[in-house]
Amino acid sequence: MDKLLLGIISDERAWLSKSPLMHRAALRAAGLKGYYVPLALEEANLTLAVDGLWALGFKGANVTAPYKQIIIPCLESLSRQAKEVGAVNTLVRGERGFVGHNSDVSGFCSAAGALINEGESIALVGAGGVARAVLAALKNRQIYLLGRNAARTNNLAAVFGQQIIPHSPLPDAFTCGWLINATSVSSPEESREMAAWVQSLRPLQGVIDLNYGRKNNFWRDLAERCHVPFQDGLSMLAFQAKDSFKLWTGLEIEIEVFQRALL
Q: Which of 68, 139, 242, 246 is catalytic?
């Protein structure tokens, strides 16, 4: 196999991603030569960037916020999973362009699926690409979808079926079994309004925040205040990276390789 060219597509947040650490470790573990680089770009240049990666011979790339949905028209085709979710987090080189995949679904199932027992109520905060992956992973479960934007929340509930119960604008108070944050906000510095609203929530089983790396995290504080378990997004990040790497190389690298890189 020739040297692999890989990367992660985002805005300026590409420079903060831990994905390069994981995939460089996976390349070493597999004995492969290659590069995994941050690809920070503006939305206006998204189509040009995807075409440029193709022309440069990239084998694939990850895609993260804010481009998981809007990158779709730039692609040759979508996998069945990506079509179902309506969001992409992994590009794989195809015959004439990149094929969009979604390893967030399997990543969430591996990281958090065993935590949530059948019959426990679930509240999901957010209506973007990560929320779509969670809804696909928790198919046929009743989920309360909490969103700040009524149009996006109602549309997402309609797409994923009758089991999804939309709540928008955000309710004044909410009690549930598991609370899952799929927004990009986890610290008061990112949204004072969201931080204040979280004070009214009462999770009974646990809290999952799909972000990571926030020094001040009001979702973690909520879990501690309510004396319930807390999991951040690092576990899901590792599992989705493992699945992305397999899509690019066909190789099954042990999850510990990705987890150690994060530490």
A: 68
The answer as to whether 30 is a domain residue is yes
Same domain, 153 and 183: yes
CATH number at residue 152: 3.40.50.720
pLDDT digit string (tens) for the chain, length 263 residues: 579 999 999 999 999 999 999 999 999 999 999 999 999 999 999 999 999 999 999 999 999 999 999 999 999 999 999 999 999 999 999 999 999 999 999 999 999 988 999 889 999 999 999 999 999 999 889 999 999 999 999 999 999 987 899 999 899 889 999 999 999 999 999 999 999 999 999 999 999 999 998 889 999 999 999 999 999 999 999 999 999 999 999 999 999 999 999 98
Alpha helical stretches, state H, 113-217: 129-137, 150-160, 192-198
Contact present, 107 and 239 (Cβ < 8 Å):
yes
Examine residue 94 and state whether it is found in any structural domain, yes or no. yes
Taking every pair of Cα atoms in the chain, the longest distance, rounded to a whole number of angstroms, is: 56
68 included as an active-site residue:
yes
Assigned domain for 110 exists? no
